[in-house]
Amino acid sequence: MRHLLLLLLLALLSACSEPPEPTPLASAGAAPLLLGQPATATPLPGRLPRNPHLAANGNGYMHGDGYSSDSHPGPGPLGRAMQVASRDGSRKPGGMCPIHTFDRGGRLVVLCANLLQFELQLLEPRSLKLLARYPLPARPSTFHALITLDPDKIMSDSSGAYFYLDNQDRVVIANAEQRIQRIAHRQDAEGQWRFEQVDAWDLSTQVPHDCVRPSAWFPSGECDPITGVMPDEGGLIWWWTRRGRLGTLNPQDGAVHGTQLAGEEIQNGVALDAAGLYLVSDHAMYLFALDAAGQPQQAWREVYDRGSARKSGSLSQGSGTTPTLLGERYVAITDNADRRINLLVYRREPGFAGQRLICQLPLFANDASATDNSLIGWGRSLIAENNHGYSSAFAQEDWGAVSGGISRVDLRADESGCDLVWHSPERSPSAVPKLSVQSGLAYFYSFEPQANGENAWYLTALDFASGATRFKALAGVGQAFDNNWSPITLAPDGTAYVGTFGGLVALWDAD
After folding, report:
1. First to last CA, the chain
2. 8 A C-beta contact, residue 149 and residue 216
3. Domain total in the chain
4. Residue whose C-alpha is closest to residue 55's, from 15, 9, 108, 93
5. Nearest to 212 by CA among 228, 204, 224
6. Three-state SS string across 287-354, please?
7. pLDDT digits (tens, 9 = 90+) for 340-354
8. What SS3 state is found at 362?
9. What are the φ/ψ torsions at residue 144 (nearest 5 degrees)?
10. Which ranges of 128-240 would DSSP assign to H, the alpha helix?
11. Residue 18's CB: how many other CB atoms inside 10 A?
12. Which stretch is the leader sequence (predicted)?
């Protein structure tokens, strides 16, 4: 009977319609609109290469670009008469909108989710008006969470989150039925926007899919959801899964190649350059390249300290970072060492024969050190955020347990190690941080406890050079504004978008 009731609830919510005009998120109290003072832009030197099969750098992928630098080449808010808009999605399919990309017209192409389903949405910039939506299959973790009444099954599942927008504004995404879809959005003769699938490839022969679903509540086989997809510079689509499978899809002829890491899991995103695919499992850091037949082959592997257990502030036992590429020679992650995590920087060349590890620097305080968000990487600098003490918007009760801390580390030019440049005590418990190259500011999402027991949530800008907090712009007060592991994303027009537990928030300078 319980399963029948849950199915009826699923069907009922899936039938709800999403109104085009947004309902703003309700703030649960008053708080200062701006802490600090407006900043002055200080552009940073340098630029990153663009993957020709991705949208422009900063526009097409959760971590910004093929290097997963978490940087955006354009501006970010400077704290000048800040404007705020939000969209409440908590009572509708789509709900929280954590992943944001931008088409060439500046429109948002976002992945939204609630406890029951994922969907793509096309939103008008800043106003957040809904232009189109495209439902996606429910993930197995949704049904598993319903059976066990444990929402952590959903929170620890990153499958499907790593999609990208290609160089023709098409979404490329792995859905919960082991299919890679290519989905375009177009405006019809009446001016209405629509999503439509233009290609799909079935990977079920490569990736087992005996998963919990309405027709099979207690499957006996293996379920291995596809975590994400990314293109390489030759146009192949790389894919990877929770249980350590990875491979390529040739979109021209549908050919699929794959391999598997024995006994290892992959929970994070990837980075790519001309040499191949960089990924981190819960045991080791890898480069995979293609052999003459197009089969992915391990080019090198570096084991790191994965610690003895999953930490508070982490979604798995192992590194919580997507690999970040620096320049032409380095790749960086963090480990999961027990007392203090370490920033690790490796030489990444395929044929390098010496010691790959050139930086191992402990971060944050003893027994208060964890991150499940990727590093910002620019030039020879890396910025890490401490997520220790945070669980999720569902479960967090003790906000004093959130340890906080943000550190910038620079790699020495002679490759003899790396050095702590600055440390900030700001507490940004779960947001993927971003750097605006044009503004010279790194953006985080912090909270300030209020007298009414709620948290005020702020877009927080730190000076890249000094680490000084320049300003904090209020997004809103209350649980609906909790970030809940979503990225901050900077649009080409300088607007900052933050996925929240209740929906989506936009913040920008007054024109």
Report:
1. 56
2. no
3. 1
4. 108
5. 224
6. EEEECCCCCEEEEEEEECCCCCCCCCCCCCCCCCCCCEEECCCEEEEECCCCCCCEEEEEECCCCCCC
7. 999 999 999 999 999
8. strand
9. -65, -40
10. 140-148, 152-155
11. 16
12. 1-17
Assigned token pair, 74: 């354009």
- Cβ proximity of 399 and 340 under 8 Å: no
Integer Cα distance of 275 and 290 in angstroms: 9
- Domain ranges, residue 503: 2-508
* C-alpha count within 13 angstroms, C-beta hemisphere, residue 87: 31
What lies within 8 Å, CB to CB, of 186 at 6+ separation is 193, 194, 196
State the CATH number of the domain containing residue 33: 2.130.10.10
- How confident is the model over 450-496, as pLDDT tens digits? 999 999 999 999 999 999 999 999 999 999 999 999 999 999 999 99
The torsion defined by the Cα of 197, 201, 202 and 206, in degrees rounded to 10, comes to: -150
Residue 391 corresponds to which amino acid? S
Amino acid at 66: G
The H or E element spanning position 13 is helix 2-14
H helix intervals, 175-260: none
Collapsing DSSP states into helix, strand and coil, what is residue 399?
helix
Using 50, 70 and 90 to split pLDDT, how confident is the model at 150? low
Does residue 113 or residue 278 have the better pLDDT?
A: 278
Q: Which two tokens stand for residue 315?
A: 């979604």
Quote the tokens at residue 221: 């086989």
Strands of the sheet with 118-123, listed across from one edge? 96-102, 108-113, 118-123, 130-136
296 within 8 A of 247, measured Cβ to Cβ: yes
Backbone angles phi, psi at 215, to 5 degrees: -95, 0
Element (H, E) at 155: helix 152-155
At 300-325, the pLDDT tens digits run: 999 999 999 998 888 889 999 999 99
Tell me which residue of 371, 374, 359, 296 sits closest to 329, measured CA to CA. 359
Determine whether 286 is exposed, middle or buried from the number of CB atoms within 10 Å of its CB (0-12, 13-18, 19+).
buried
From the number of C-beta atoms within 10 Å of its C-beta (0-12, 13-18, 19+), residue 268 rates as buried
Across 469-503, b (16+ Cβ under 10 Å) vs e yields bbbbbbbbbbbbbbbbbbbbbbbbebbbbbbbbbb
Residues 130/56/435/317 CA torsion (nearest 10 deg): 80
Beta-sheet strand order (sheet of 488-490): 83-88, 503-508, 496-500, 488-490
Residue found under tokens 């850091």: 285
